[in-house]
C-alpha cells in the first residue's frame, strides 16, 4: 500500500461552490417549515461543508401535495411520450454541461474518486436519462385474444406519485436510476437523498426545472430517514416507494407501506456477494478482478464481492499475489487521480467498519493486509484482507460496506455452490473459470439477481438489477424498471358479428 498523496493541493484543486441547500418543492427552493438545518461533512477531514435544510413530515406533506397536483391535473402525465422524451433529453444535456462541477460536488460530499465519478457516475446518469427518454414514446399495451365475442386490450398507465429514497454510496447513479424511468412513464415524485450526501440531488432538481420539467413533478426533501423517510413510506397519498439501502430499513418501509395505503414497494437492499475462483482461472486476472470487486468505491457498494472463494489448488498462489498487488493500492485524497481509495462516507460508517475488522481479528482469521485506520484526519481505512476465513465468522456473514475482503478456501464445485448460497442475501455473484460447463452450472445454481462471469461490477442501464431473498425485490435498470412504475389496466367490451375470432 503506497503512501497517501496530497493530490488535491498538488493539482490546485478548487472546492466547488455549494449553490443549493434548501428543499425543492413545487419548482422552488424553500426553507423547511421548522427552520431546522443539519450539517453535511467533508469525509476527507470530518469538517462541516455546509448546513442543509432539514425536512420532516410537514415538508413531505407539502411535497406530496405538489406531486399529487402535478399528477392529477398537471401537464407531465398528459404529454405525449415524445414531448416528455424531448425534455428529458434536454435534462441530460444540462447534466453533461455541468459534469465537472457535479462530479466535484459528489466527491466532496461522499469521498468518491473524482476521475471515476466523471467516467462512471456522471456518465451513467446521462446515459440513463437518454435511455429512458428513448423509451418514453414506446409505452403501449396489448390487444387481447378473448375467448368469447369480446374485444379486450390493456393500457399501461403511470402508477402515480412515487417516493424515491436513495442511498449515500452512489447518490448520482441512484438518483437517475430511480427518477429517469419514473419520469418516462409520466409519474411525479418526491425524492429523499441520504442525509450524508444531499448536495447533488438538489442540483439535479434545479437542472430538471431548467430543462422544462413542470413544477411539482420532481420534489427533493433533504433530511433524515427516521423523519422524512418514514413520512414518505407511510404517506397515504404516495402510490409507490422505491428504496435502495439496508435490509433493516427495507423491512421498516414494507411495514409502513402495509400499515398505510398498501402502496407498491420496490427494494434494492444489502448483499454479501460471493466471487468464486476455480483452479483453471488465470490467477493474475483473478486477483485483479477480486481486488476491484471488493475495494471499488472504498467497499461502499451493495454488490461488493466481500466473500472471495478460491479453489484449493490455487489458493496459496492467489493469496501471495493478492498481498503483493495490495502494496501498490493508494489510499488518499479522492481528488488526486493517482489514488485508488478515498475516505469512508462518515464517522458512523468508519467506526462500524473498524469494529468489524476487530471482530475478524478476534474470531481467528489471518490478517493479510491493512486492519487499521489510515490517517489521523478524515475517515480513511487501510484496505483490509483476511484469509483463512470460516463461513460462521461475522466478517463472512454480515454486510460490512467497507474495504474488507474475506478469502475462503473450497474444494469442489458442489461445496462452492452450497457455501455461496449459505447467506440471507442474494444480490450478486461472480464466477471465474475457463470451463463453460462450470459457468452454466454455477450461473443456474447460485441464488442471486446478477451474476458476472470472468468479470465483475459490469453494469449497464439496459441490464436489470435487483436481488433475491433479503436483498429485496423489484428491478432497477432495463425495461423492467420502466414497467414497475406503471399499472396495467384491462379494458373489455362486446364485439358483435365479427368476421373472425
Automatic annotation (TrEMBL):
<dbReference type="GO" id="GO:0019752">
    <property type="term" value="P:carboxylic acid metabolic process"/>
</dbReference>
<dbReference type="Pfam" id="PF00171">
    <property type="entry name" value="Aldedh"/>
</dbReference>
<dbReference type="InterPro" id="IPR015590">
    <property type="entry name" value="Aldehyde_DH_dom"/>
</dbReference>
<keyword id="KW-0560">Oxidoreductase</keyword>
<dbReference type="InterPro" id="IPR016161">
    <property type="entry name" value="Ald_DH/histidinol_DH"/>
</dbReference>
<keyword id="KW-0520">NAD</keyword>
<feature type="domain" description="Aldehyde dehydrogenase">
    <location>
        <begin position="29"/>
        <end position="491"/>
    </location>
</feature>
<dbReference type="GO" id="GO:0004029">
    <property type="term" value="F:aldehyde dehydrogenase (NAD+) activity"/>
</dbReference>
<dbReference type="InterPro" id="IPR016160">
    <property type="entry name" value="Ald_DH_CS_CYS"/>
</dbReference>
<feature type="active site">
    <location>
        <position position="268"/>
    </location>
</feature>
<dbReference type="GO" id="GO:0005739">
    <property type="term" value="C:mitochondrion"/>
</dbReference>
<comment type="similarity">
    <text>Belongs to the aldehyde dehydrogenase family.</text>
</comment>
<dbReference type="InterPro" id="IPR029510">
    <property type="entry name" value="Ald_DH_CS_GLU"/>
</dbReference>
<protein>
    <submittedName>
        <fullName>Aldehyde dehydrogenase</fullName>
    </submittedName>
</protein>
<dbReference type="InterPro" id="IPR016162">
    <property type="entry name" value="Ald_DH_N"/>
</dbReference>
<dbReference type="InterPro" id="IPR016163">
    <property type="entry name" value="Ald_DH_C"/>
</dbReference>
Amino acid at each position: 500500500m503506497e503512501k497517501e498523496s496530497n493530490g488535491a493541493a498538488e493539482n490546485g484543486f478548487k472546492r466547488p461552490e455549494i449553490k443549493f441547500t434548501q428543499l425543492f418543492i413545487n419548482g422552488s427552493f424553500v426553507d423547511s417549515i421548522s427552520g431546522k438545518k443539519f450539517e453535511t461533512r467533508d469525509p476527507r477531514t470530518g469538517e462541516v461543508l455546509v448546513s442543509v435544510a432539514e425536512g420532516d413530515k410537514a415538508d413531505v406533506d407539502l411535497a406530496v401535495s405538489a406531486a399529487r397536483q402535478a399528477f392529477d391535473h398537471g401537464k407531465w402525465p398528459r404529454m405525449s411520450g415524445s414531448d416528455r422524451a424531448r425534455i428529458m433529453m434536454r435534462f441530460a444535456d444540462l447534466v453533461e454541461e455541468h459534469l465537472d462541477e457535479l462530479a466535484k460536488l459528489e466527491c466532496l460530499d461522499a469521498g468518491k474518486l473524482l476521475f471515476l465519478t466523471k467516467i462512471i457516475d456522471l456518465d451513467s446518469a446521462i446515459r440513463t436519462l437518454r435511455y429512458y427518454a428513448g423509451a418514453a414514446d414506446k409505452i403501449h399495451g396489448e390487444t387481447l385474444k378473448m375467448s368469447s365475442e369480446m374485444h379486450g386490450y390493456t393500457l399501461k398507465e403511470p402508477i402515480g406519485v412515487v417516493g424515491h429514497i436513495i442511498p449515500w454510496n452512489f447518490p448520482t447513479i441512484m438518483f437517475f436510476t430511480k427518477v429517469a424511468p419514473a419520469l418516462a412513464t409520466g409519474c411525479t415524485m418526491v425524492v429523499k437523498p441520504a442525509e450524508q450526501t444531499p448536495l447533488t440531488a438538489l442540483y439535479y432538481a434545479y437542472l430538471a426545472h431548467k430543462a422544462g420539467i413542470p413544477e411539482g413533478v420532481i420534489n427533493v426533501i433533504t433530511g433524515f430517514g427516521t423523519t422524512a423517510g418514514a413520512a414518505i413510506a407511510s404517506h397515504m397519498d404516495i402510490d409507490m416507494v422505491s428504496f435502495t439501502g439496508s435490509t433493516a430499513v427495507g423491512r421498516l418501509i414494507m411495514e409502513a407501506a402495509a400499515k398505510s395505503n398498501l402502496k407498491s414497494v420496490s427494494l434494492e437492499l444489502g448483499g454479501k456477494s460471493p466471487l468464486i475462483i476455480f483452479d483453471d482461472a488465470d490467477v493474475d486476472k483473478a486477483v485483479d478482478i477480486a481486488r476491484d470487486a471488493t475495494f471499488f468505491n472504498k467497499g461502499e457498494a451493495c454488490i461488493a464481492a466481500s466473500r472471495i472463494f478460491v479453489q484449493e489448488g490455487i489458493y496459496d498462489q492467489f493469496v501471495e499475489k493478492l498481498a503483493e498487488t495490495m502494496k501498490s493500492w493508494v489510499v488518499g485524497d479522492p481528488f488526486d487521480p493517482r489514488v485508488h481509495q478515498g475516505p469512508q462516507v462518515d464517522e458512523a460508517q468508519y467506526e462500524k467498519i473498524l469494529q468489524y475488522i476487530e471482530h475478524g481479528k478476534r474470531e481467528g482469521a489471518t490478517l493479510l493486509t491493512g486492519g487499521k485506520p489510515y490517517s489521523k484526519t478524515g475517515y480513511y481505512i487501510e484496505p483490509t484482507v483476511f484469509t483463512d476465513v470460516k463461513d460462521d465468522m461475522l466478517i463472512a456473514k454480515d454486510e460490512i460496506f467497507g474495504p474488507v475482503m474475506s478469502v475462503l478456501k473450497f474444494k469442489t464445485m458442489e461445496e462452492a455452490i452450497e457455501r455461496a448460497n449459505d447467506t440471507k442475501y442474494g444480490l450478486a455473484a461472480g464466477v471465474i473459470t475457463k470451463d463453460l460447463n462450470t459457468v452454466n452450472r454455477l450461473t443456474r445454481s447460485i441464488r442471486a439477481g446478477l451474476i458476472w462471469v470472468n468479470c465483475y461490477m459490469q453494469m449497464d442501464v439496459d441490464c436489470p438489477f435487483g436481488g433475491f431473498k433479503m436483498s429485496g425485490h423489484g428491478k432497477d435498470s432495463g425495461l423492467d424498471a420502466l414497467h414497475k412504475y406503471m399499472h396495467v389496466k384491462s379494458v373489455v367490451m362486446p364485439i358483435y358479428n365479427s368476421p373472425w375470432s
